[in-house]
Design brief:
Layout: H1 13-17, E1 24-32, H2 33-42, E2 46-56, H3 59-73, E3 80-87, E4 93-105, H4 112-120, E5 125-131, E6 138-145, H5 147-158, H6 161-165, E7 173-181, E8 188-191, E9 195-196, E10 207-210, E11 215-217, E12 219-220, H7 222-231, E13 233-240
Parallel strand pairs: 1-7, 4-5
Antiparallel strand pairs: 1-2, 2-4, 3-4, 5-6, 6-13, 7-11, 8-10, 8-13, 9-12
Organism: Aestuariivirga litoralis
Protein name: Twin-arginine translocation signal domain-containing protein
InterPro entries: TAT_signal_bac_arc
Length: 242
């Protein structure tokens, strides 16, 4: 079973959604190969859970601020729940959240605004599968964020007295990990769009093969992180279906 770990870092799903006082936010999200294929076939959304951990100054700060953050950024379709606040980490405490989003199907659109409206509606974050657009036999998977909505939530948090007392300035270091799990009986192959393959191949040449019962991860590069922040979505991998 493949267990090599790399990280998607920068502005991403949990990182953008949970704006906390502290210096580090880490998100881990699994997506199954069977999910990608079934959503592409049926068009029925599939749940995608994300575990988010954030560094806090103390457990007490975590307990106060984590609940406020979860309530501020959550939507009916993207719930955010605080699971625990425990001592640890370089800043004194670690808060753990569970965030639920979904993988949906889209045909995209001609402009970024139309694409985001088709995928997100009023939600703040989703993954989506869609035709590659240039090559038959490829299903692309992308990450979509409602940047204005997330920025508004961050500004609301910054205005709260508890965040002001904690001297929260909105500057947080992010990391984002997605586990690609092959739960089918055939090898799964992916072109990695604008990401590195563990540093061994340029992003435009990277091909990732995951055997049955295998798992691997991918890493967005700096240019893709900037694109995500600018346009609100990126295509980070495309699965071969032929």
């Amino acid at each position: 079973m493949i267990t090599r770990r790399t990280f998607i870092t920068g502005l991403a799903l949990g990182a953008a959604a949970i704006a906390l006082t502290g210096c580090q936010i880490d998100t881990r999200t699994p997506i199954k190969v069977s999910q990608i294929l079934e959503v592409a076939r049926s068009g029925v959304p599939s749940p995608v859970p994300a575990t988010v951990t954030g560094q806090f100054i103390t457990p007490a700060w975590c307990q106060d601020e984590a609940v406020m953050a979860a309530q501020t950024v959550a939507t009916p379709a993207v719930p955010v729940q605080v699971q625990s606040c425990a001592p640890g980490g370089p800043t004194g405490a670690i808060g753990t959240f569970q965030m639920g989003t979904s993988l949906v199907k889209t045909d995209g659109g001609q402009t970024d605004a139309v694409i985001l409206a088709n995928v997100l509606g009023t939600d703040n974050a989703r993954f989506a599968v869609f035709p590659h657009g240039k090559h038959d036999g490829l299903l692309s998977v992308g990450l979509f964020l409602n940047i204005p909505q997330l920025q508004a939530a961050q500004q609301k948090l910054m205005a709260m007295p508890v965040y002001k007392r904690g001297k929260y300035d909105g500057n947080v270091t992010f990391s984002f990990t997605i586990d690609i799990i092959n739960d089918t009986d055939k090898p799964a192959k992916f072109y990695l769009a604008d990401v590195s393959a563990g540093g061994d191949l340029p992003s435009d040449e990277a091909i990732l093969t995951i055997p049955p019962a295998g798992m691997d991860t991918v890493t967005l590069d700096a240019q893709t992180q900037a694109k995500l922040g600018a346009q609100g979505w990126v295509n980070f991998m495309s699965m071969m279906t032929k």
